[in-house]
Amino acid sequence: MLQSISKSLAALVVGVVLGGCHSNAQTAQSADPLSEYHGLYTPSNTEEFQTSMHTNHPDYDWGVWGHNLAKLVKDEATDDMYAIVDGKRSSKQFCFSSQSLYNKVREYVLDQYGWGTADYSERISIMPMDNKTVCTCNDCTARGNTSTNATPAVTAFVERLAEEFPRHKFFTSAYHTTNTPPTTSLAANVGTFVSSIKLPMRVDFTKTEGYNEFVQNVKAWRKQCSRIYVWDYERNYDDYLSPFPCLLAMQARFRLYRDLGVQGVFVNGSGDDYSAFDDMQTYVLALLLDNPDTDVHESIARYYREHYPQTADLLTTYYWGLEQRAQSTNHLLPLYGSMQEMCESYLDVKEFVSFRSQLDKASKLTVGDERKRLNALLTALAYTQLEMYRTGLLAKDEETIGEMREILKGHSELKGMNNRDESGHSIDDYLKKWE
Ligand SMILES: [Zn+2]
Asked: Ligand 1 centroid vs 135 CA: distance in angstroms?
């Protein structure tokens, strides 16, 4: 899942020129929980929004992001930068004991960002390639690597960079082969992303095994690392266009992170792709990152009153109804889910059809920005309704199906509405299947 955030190196470099991050690497230890990084990878987290809501965005504030180490070395990779897996050289993973790999990264950091200054530091992410292979060459094994644990060599690599560049911040990840915490304390300018993937996406997760595992993992990492960020999730990655009432679940997660002393959160949404209700959800998530005790219902209502003056009541009532259902049933919100699963969890077919139709009627009386926003939302929701027909949740009705297809065709005129999921399946291909 992490690989979905693979931005081109060019974009990262541009991002750094535009944004950079200006904070002192040495001050973070005393920072309040959740005060250091509010990353939202959503289409509504624009540059303007970042400024007004003090959010972060990976395109703007990372020198090297996620698994982009591979892109950094790609053209100049030499054999010895790659791992030994099952006794053989494999270009699917790095050897973090490789001097050539270290030199390449060192040279890149120096070229692009220099040594940093008292008030300028860059965030550099060093993670293995996104798979479960580990280098077990003699050097990595001597550091402590096993066929399932890459933490020793990766940590040593990151520590070496952190020592050489004390003004920059270096991040590793507690994920897959680096899930096991290091056995020694990491430098003050080293941080870790702990993935929350084990923490079930439901409003009350406290009685689950995943919750215990996540909490234990964060606590174990905190013993050795003063800067913990959580890599979090807030979308159905199989369907960006249908409603996903994640806000009360996210509130519960952010409260937990705060209580665990986590300093930053990166919330992986739909990236640059349009997703239903994202404008409101991004706004509320930004408020929750500032203060996890923010009143979610009040924030939703306020957002809609401001941006959808004519249809605020309709939108707030419907969306809040979904959140309340997710809360009262405490059903799992599927991060990868079909229409069937969304309907088992929180969507009610009849209620949805009625809402979509009322919103469509009401939208015709709106003007300006509200009308534009509703046009995009209704286009996305036409996909939801088509999925209900396709999966047999709604009885076939050729006339309405034709109408929904016409509405969905309008996607081509809307910014960012080309894909319907994380894998990049296009709406155009979907529409062709209906022909
Ligand atoms: Zn190695």
From this structure: 5
Q: How far is the CA of 97 from the centre of ligand 1 (A)?
A: 5
CA of 98 to the centre of ligand 1 (A): 6
Spacing, Cα 113 to ligand 1 middle (Å): 27
Report CA(164)–ligand 1 centroid distance (Å). Answer: 21
pLDDT band at 357 (very low <50, low <70, confident <90, very high): very high
Segment 131-157, tens digit of pLDDT: 999 999 999 999 999 999 999 999 999
The pair of three-digit structure tokens given for residue 289, joined into one six-digit string: 């990152």
Give the Å distances, CA to CA, from 285 to 126, 189, 288: 27, 27, 5
Return the CATH class of domain 2-291.
alpha beta
Beta 227-233 vs 264-268: how paired, if at all?
Answer: parallel
pLDDT tens digit sequence for 77-120 = 999 999 999 999 999 999 999 999 999 999 999 999 999 999 99
Residues 125 and 62: beta-carbon distance below 8 Å: yes
State in Å: Cα 93 to ligand 1 middle. 10
- Ligand 1 centre and the CA of 147: distance in Å? 11
Determine the distance separating the centroid of ligand 1 and the alpha carbon of 130, expressed in angstroms: 16
**What residue type is 200 in one-letter code?**
P
Which tops the pLDDT comparison, 251 or 5? 251
Cα(94) to ligand 1 centroid in Å equals 7
Whether 2 shows a pLDDT value over 60: the answer reads no
Residue 142 CA to ligand 1 center (angstroms) comes to 9
Which residues lie closer than 8 Å to 207 by C-beta, 6 or more apart? none
44 C-beta neighbours (distance < 10 Å), count: 21
Q: Where are the domains of the chain?
A: 2-291, 306-434
